[in-house]
Amino acid sequence: MHEYLLTRGKHGIIIYIPQVDSKNNTRLESRYDEIFEYLQAIGIPEVI
């Protein structure tokens, strides 16, 4: 199961990637790093 939240509104799209959790094997840091790097590579800006 992937835990990503994707929502859209009138002004854009928000992709939420949750915090990593070493105790939860569905939230491995290496996997989330790959996703984050891919999204940045295709031009999606980070919003904090």
Q: Which class of secondary structure composition applies to the elements?
A: alpha+beta
Number of strands: 2
Question: Unreliable stretches, pLDDT < 50, 5 or more residues?
Answer: none
Shape: globular
Structurally, how many domains make up the residues? 1
Number of helices: 1
Run of helices and strands: EEH
**What does the main sheet amount to?**
2 strands, antiparallel
Percent range of helical residues: 25-40%
State the distance separating the first and last CA atoms: 25 Å
- Percent strand: 15-25%
Radius of gyration: 12 Å
Mean pLDDT: 78
What order do the strands of the largest sheet run in, or round the barrel if closed? 1-2
Question: How would you describe what is shown here?
Answer:
The protein is of the alpha+beta class and 48 residues long. Helices cover 27% and strands 21% of the residues. It has one helix at 29-41; strands spanning 5-9, 12-16. The chain has a two-stranded antiparallel ribbon. Strand 1 and strand 2 (12-16) form a beta hairpin. The radius of gyration is 12 Å and the shape is globular. The mean pLDDT is 78.
